Amino acid sequence: MMNRLRYVRFKDYRNVHAKHLSTEATANRFQLEQLKKRSLIRLHGDLVSDFLQSLITNDINHLSQQPAIFSMFLNKAGRVLYDAIIYKTKENTLLVECDARADVDLVKHLKMFRVRKKIDIDVASDLTVWVLFDPDGAKKDIPTDKLVNFQALSNSNDDLIICDDPRVQNLGVRIVAPKDCDILQRLSPQNVSQGNPKDYTIHRYKLGVAEGVDELPHAKCFPLESNCDYLHGVSFHKGCYLGQEFTARTHHTGVIRKRLMPLQLNGQLTDFCSNQIETTDGAVVGKLRGHQQDWGLGLLKVDVALQETSPFILGGSDVYVKGTTYKPFWWPTEAPKLNELKNKEL
């Protein structure tokens, strides 16, 4: 049994990646950023896995093979309440990462369904969330053995959880650390630099990945439109969970016409501008979910967005910023639905 929060043994990776990564090639390559808008909830009890299994979109049993999973909490109508990364720690204890502005609400949500189960649920105020990422990792499909320089990490990380982001490996490495831990001092200084607070948000937008209540509005969006299936965050083979019926029906019989997609802008938007995204003809093709400098994230009609040759118009008449989108390289190639095949035959 492991009593310490350690799930990546970096000395084991050292020989594997040494031939691919040199100090010269990786100097100041990685950026470290504390995710102050993310919080952790600690759940402890003998039935904690079974308890979460009935509330999340993903299969909790995946934690037997990997240190973390991505998932979402839904309401009974199948709409997203919270996005989460779930980490395994010591036996019968799990950590749920969520938006810091929603941690108290998520605790209440979990306690409401706890009923009489002997499970302790509290905000883990003694822990912080960090990310170590390659700013160039969003540009192309970099081989996975070059995404993370495990050599850059010290050998004494027994009090940390360090693992690949379970959504898209190009997002970087997630680190859960004690609040008083100086993470930068634990990393190799020639390979890691302190990132600007906005850098990781831009990195996510380039990859087309949403996070938190601003980009995934509470009870106003759906998991498949938010790419939860593409991000390995939903299981269509596990048993029932809250919101499962609508999600499964949409996956098996429906067509997901809108998805979150990256936006590259030719100017900066204001926080008070219109969130509508339009074509040059004035047709609405989606809504803006977030923006940072010359990058953004939008919920777009996929077919229209990918076929449109002219830039989109964002911000309304007062701001008027043009933007373009693209299909993220990590999106899978979907097989045609049965009803689509029948229509082609006809």
What does this structure look like?
- The chain has 346 residues and is of the alpha+beta class.
- The chain contains 9 helices and 16 strands.
- The longest helix is centred in the first third of the chain and has 12 residues, at 103-114.
- Residues 1-26 have low confidence and may be disordered.
* Molecular shape: globular
Overall mean pLDDT stands at 85
Give the helix/strand class: alpha+beta
Beta-strand share of residues: 25-35%
Q: N- to C-terminal separation?
A: 60 Å
Main sheet: which strands, in order across? 11-14-13-12-15-16
Q: How many helices does DSSP assign?
A: 9
Over the alpha carbons, how many angstroms does the gyration radius reach? 21 Å
Summarize the main sheet. Answer: 6 strands, antiparallel, barrel
What pattern of helices and strands is seen along the backbone? HEEHEEEHEEEEHEHHEEEEHEHEH
**In total, how many beta strands?**
16
Notable traits:
five-stranded mixed β-sheet; six-stranded antiparallel beta barrel; disordered N terminus; alpha+beta; 346 residues; 9 helices
What is the secondary structure topology, with strand pairs?
Elements lengths: L9 H9 L11 E5 L3 E7 L3 H6 L14 E7 L5 E9 L4 E7 L3 H12 L5 E4 L3 E7 L27 E4 L8 E6 L4 H4 L5 E3 L4 H9 L36 H10 L4 E8 L8 E5 L5 E9 L2 E7 H6 L4 E4 H4 L1 E5 L12 H8 L1
Parallel strand pairs: 1-10
Antiparallel strand pairs: 1-7, 2-5, 2-6, 3-4, 4-5, 7-9, 8-9, 11-14, 11-16, 12-13, 12-15, 13-14, 15-16
